Amino acid sequence: MTPQEMEARIVRYGDLQPCKTAFIDAHTPGSNQKENFTIIGGGVSESPDQHVHISIPHGFNIGAAGQPPKCRNSLHSHRTAEVFFVLKGRWRFFWGRYGDAGEVTLEEGDIFNIPTGIFRGFENIGTDYGMIMAILGGDDAGGGVIWAPQVIEDAKDHGLILSEKGKLYDGKKGEALPDGVKPMPVLTDQELKTFPEPTTADVVPNYVARYWDLVALADKQPAKVIGENAKLRDKPGFEVDFITQKSAGDTQQRHDNPAVLMPVRGHWKVTWNDGAATLAPGDTMSVPENTDYTVTPSMTGESAIYRAVGTGDPAGLTWKP
């Protein structure tokens, strides 16, 4: 693959195009300043204004959320995996029907494989604009987002309504549901009973990995973060590993499925047969399947990078009560 062809598979942090009306809570006070980024795959945005940077199917999606301090992403659920790592800032994640079943605070580099099938939300509790990177299971990201009833009800008061097929209509733009199109139904009490309410003690030990713990694990070889035999044991349709300067080496890598490289700290050089590229934190690179490549730090100092690789497994459930 030529350098030009590979460059088309790199999304630079400075080139990211946000959507500020991606979801039904985009006008709700407290959530109305968030930015959504769809980097690889279709993502779960409900807005036709969402820009997709790379549409090539990978078996999973890569996205990001950028939010100023005190901005919150409302309670929602997914049918497939949702994994976040903190690129910048300090974030509080919370879950449960009303967001009070459990919570955890994540710092830069920490990663959270949020259990599928529970309501979850998150907010930037830092002092500056923060950003979290997301990996979503499946090429269709599980068919969209399932919102807690209060989120849909609150959105009506601020001009946004979601159709039963998951398309967003913005009353502030003069939009309304077309004739014959019904609004997204609110979950019934019986349906809500099927959503688990795990405690912090249930979730954190099995679904959260701390940056500095991973640095220690990656002392001699890349640390397996998410996968069948990884620190966070799961099979969500992709595997995630963590590479540091000490564990990078210069051995060529090759995968049967596409891989995605996402630096957390430092600059990284990716070399393949026909060229090379340098990545910085916030950049995202898609490496095609069956491509020989190496990934190494391009300078001394602290360096860390996450790598996600599709496995071809179904993007299955992660929460087991």
UniProtKB/TrEMBL annotation:
Cupin type-2 domain mapped to chain residues:
69-132
Matching InterPro entries: Cupin_2, RmlC-like_jellyroll, RmlC_Cupin_sf
- Per the UniProt record, one Pfam family is Cupin_2
Q: Which protein, by its recorded name, is this?
A: Cupin domain-containing protein
The organism's taxonomic lineage, starting at the top: Bacteria, Pseudomonadati, Pseudomonadota, Alphaproteobacteria, Rhodobacterales
